[in-house]
């Protein structure tokens, strides 16, 4: 997919998720979460081409500008939206599906001291359509199933099936209501698939 098409897609995602956005130009120029994703894409492309130091420098410069730290080795799908952005951390072996939304202060953190160079998965995997509330921490190589919601300030250390609601410290898994699932999918114009 071409760069400009991806950027337009990101702007549309931000507009769909943020009722306070007034124009595409506002999102394009003033949304740090969108800028962080774009910076990540540049850093990730460099990482994949084995320009590791340059990738880390781009990543850290993006962090300086946006307050969002995304490791260039993380795997991120399409249309990630980071609302407000400040304080978000996405670790090296994290994997994020399509249409995911993260609020400020979210950490997708690691649990092991062994690095990815040893083939150790240390960070979470978020399925498509997952929403992670402000201040939530998802720690370790856990998998959060598609269309799940992690509540604000929850601490998740265990896997959750699709369409779950995770609340508390430590987070407990509950099934999400059909209305919540439909609202999440419908709000993105994605329907059932």
UniProtKB/TrEMBL annotation:
<dbReference type="GO" id="GO:0005737">
    <property type="term" value="C:cytoplasm"/>
</dbReference>
<protein>
    <recommendedName>
        <fullName>Serine acetyltransferase</fullName>
        <ecNumber>2.3.1.30</ecNumber>
    </recommendedName>
</protein>
<dbReference type="InterPro" id="IPR042122">
    <property type="entry name" value="Ser_AcTrfase_N_sf"/>
</dbReference>
<keyword id="KW-0808">Transferase</keyword>
<dbReference type="InterPro" id="IPR045304">
    <property type="entry name" value="LbH_SAT"/>
</dbReference>
<keyword id="KW-0028">Amino-acid biosynthesis</keyword>
<dbReference type="InterPro" id="IPR011004">
    <property type="entry name" value="Trimer_LpxA-like_sf"/>
</dbReference>
<keyword id="KW-0198">Cysteine biosynthesis</keyword>
<dbReference type="InterPro" id="IPR001451">
    <property type="entry name" value="Hexapep"/>
</dbReference>
<dbReference type="InterPro" id="IPR053376">
    <property type="entry name" value="Serine_acetyltransferase"/>
</dbReference>
<keyword id="KW-0677">Repeat</keyword>
<dbReference type="Pfam" id="PF00132">
    <property type="entry name" value="Hexapep"/>
</dbReference>
<dbReference type="InterPro" id="IPR005881">
    <property type="entry name" value="Ser_O-AcTrfase"/>
</dbReference>
<comment type="similarity">
    <text>Belongs to the transferase hexapeptide repeat family.</text>
</comment>
<keyword id="KW-0963">Cytoplasm</keyword>
<comment type="pathway">
    <text>Amino-acid biosynthesis; L-cysteine biosynthesis; L-cysteine from L-serine: step 1/2.</text>
</comment>
<keyword id="KW-0012">Acyltransferase</keyword>
<dbReference type="GO" id="GO:0006535">
    <property type="term" value="P:cysteine biosynthetic process from serine"/>
</dbReference>
<dbReference type="GO" id="GO:0009001">
    <property type="term" value="F:serine O-acetyltransferase activity"/>
</dbReference>
């Amino acid at each position: 997919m071409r760069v400009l098409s991806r950027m337009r897609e990101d702007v549309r995602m931000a507009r769909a998720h943020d009722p306070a956005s007034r124009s595409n130009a506002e999102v394009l120029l003033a949304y740090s979460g969108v800028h962080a994703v774009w910076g990540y894409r540049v850093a990730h492309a460099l990482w994949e081409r084995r320009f590791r130091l340059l990738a880390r420098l781009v990543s850290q410069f993006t962090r300086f500008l946006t307050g969002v730290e995304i490791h260039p080795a993380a795997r991120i799908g399409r249309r990630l939206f980071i609302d407000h952005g400040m304080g978000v951390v996405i670790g090296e072996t994290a994997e994020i599906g399509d249409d995911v939304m993260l609020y400020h202060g979210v950490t997708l953190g690691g649990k092991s001291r062994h690095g990815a160079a040893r083939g150790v998965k240390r960070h979470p995997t978020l399925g498509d359509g997952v929403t992670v509330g402000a201040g939530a921490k998802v720690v370790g190589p856990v998998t959060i199933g598609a269309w799940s919601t992690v509540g604000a300030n929850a601490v998740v250390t265990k896997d959750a099936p699709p369409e779950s609601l995770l609340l508390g410290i430590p987070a407990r898994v509950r099934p999400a209501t059909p209305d919540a699932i439909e609202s999440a999918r419908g709000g993105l114009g994605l329907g059932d698939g």
